Amino acid sequence: MGNSSFDLMEVELLANDTERCYSPFTQISDTVNCLSIVINILHILMLNQMKELKTTKYFFILVIISSSDILAGIIGILFYSCKIRILLLQLTTKATYWIFTVIVRLLGFTAVLQYVVLLMSSLERYIAVCQPYKYSTHPLINHLKVVFGLTAGFLAVCIGLSSIQIQQLRENRLNVVFVERGKFIWINYVVTFISSIIINVLLVKVWKELKGLTPNDSADRRLIRSASKYVIWTYVMHQSTNIPNLVHFVSKLCGISLTISNVLEAVTSIARSSYGIADVFLFIHFNPGYIVKVKKYFKVRTCTNSVASDNRS
């Protein structure tokens, strides 16, 4: 019975949470997340057409940045969508609890993963700008995909194990469950805090090195400048989306009214959803030739389709 009562308590909290469906922020959040998913998928397709980038290690960085934004958009819809929450409540108590638990874990994993992506991006840019003579032979650069995969897999296992511990221990004592949940949250906090410190140090050094570079119009030098500025401002933009979340966290500690707290959480959700869209436009800003590539791509596709249609007729 202890097991069932705990499940029921969690589901009832989830049910009360659907009161947010009377607020338009969930519809806005879902719309922005959908736009972010579509735009980043199209962005990856366009990057795949840019041969000058596809042959570089920087191409992988661009792909994982957009891929993490797509994943964040999907998880954001699953977590905040009122329709999905209402559908979950129509399932059995145990199924509702565990599905929502998985969604919450994925939400936390995605947040940490974005910091890992930014850390990898910063390391790649630091080596490219500050140690260019080591770039082609550096072990991290040559095994970037493996390092990223192992790091992401390790985080996924840590978060997964925290869920298994809850499943095993929650039958004994209710307070143990919340202790384990605290450990899960601390995994997120520790990883993001350490990553932020390392990223700050690396990108400050990259920024200083860029200011000291002599003007050069070569294609390689232009790519170094645009890629480095893009990564720097991507990180700045990502950190700025955490400001509403910080205010929301402080408001909960100070016991501010639930209405204000929900508004702050809504702003946080929409800010994080918008990050995925703004990230693509930031890339366009530092790569003016991108729009030309897009127009050329769609023009070629249109001409190809017209020729194929004429041949059939």
Structure description:
The longest helix has 39 residues, at 174-212. The chain is globular, with a radius of gyration of 23 Å. The chain has a single domain (2-303), classed as Rhodopsin 7-helix transmembrane proteins (Rhopdopsin 7-helix transmembrane proteins), CATH 1.20.1070.10. It is built from 13 helices and no strands. Helices cover 86% and strands 0% of the residues. Helix 1 (2-17) crosses helix 6 (93-130), helix 2 runs antiparallel to helix 4 and helix 9 runs antiparallel to helix 10 (219-240). By secondary structure, it is mostly helical. It has helices at residues 2-17, 25-47, 51-54, 58-80, 82-89, 93-130, 139-142, 144-169, 174-212, 219-240, 242-253, 258-286, 289-312. It starts with a helix and ends with a helix. The model is unreliable at 1-10 and 164-182 (pLDDT under 50).
Helices, strands, pairings?
Elements: H1 2-17, H2 25-47, H3 51-54, H4 58-80, H5 82-89, H6 93-130, H7 139-142, H8 144-169, H9 174-212, H10 219-240, H11 242-253, H12 258-286, H13 289-312
Helix pairs in contact: 1-6, 2-4, 2-12, 4-6, 4-12, 6-8, 6-9, 6-10, 8-9, 9-10, 10-12, 11-12
